[in-house]
Amino acid sequence: SGKTWSTLMAVLLQISSTTAMSITNEEREFFIALGERIARLRKEHGITQTQLAERLGVSQQTIQAYESGKRRIQVAALPELARLLSTTLEELFGQQQETTVRKRGPAPKWQQQLEAIDQLPKSQQKFVAQMLDALIAQATTKASSEGREILQ
């Protein structure tokens, strides 16, 4: 909800402005859980720590520290992190129920490929789309001719 979201952001802003020595156990647990979710989502998308680090403009060691909960993530980096992991900030913060049934959609491998295509420049996206159209047309033609052979 909006209230939960604004409260969470206020807490994060307060946390990010405090020193490392003053972190509470509750805050520590939050960052450990956040790091675990980041690691899980990163792995689900087939992204390495190094790749994620490059896309965020940080070191691989920083990503490792985020994932282990040893380092707090800058609040300003969270929206980009969520985008790179194809998730919402709410899910990243553990606010969304993960027990929801997955809607019919692309299989995980297809989803990864679609996301990779989405990262390409527009001209390359157009080329990939044209190649896919040609392959689908070829497969459809082959399938229909094989179907005719079976009927004869």
From TrEMBL:
Keywords: DNA-binding. Pfam families: HTH_3 (PF01381). Residues 38-92 form the HTH cro/C1-type domain. The keyword RNA-binding does not apply. The keyword DNA-binding applies. One of its GO terms (molecular function) is DNA binding. InterPro entries: Cro/C1-type_HTH, Lambda_DNA-bd_dom_sf. This is Prophage regulatory protein.
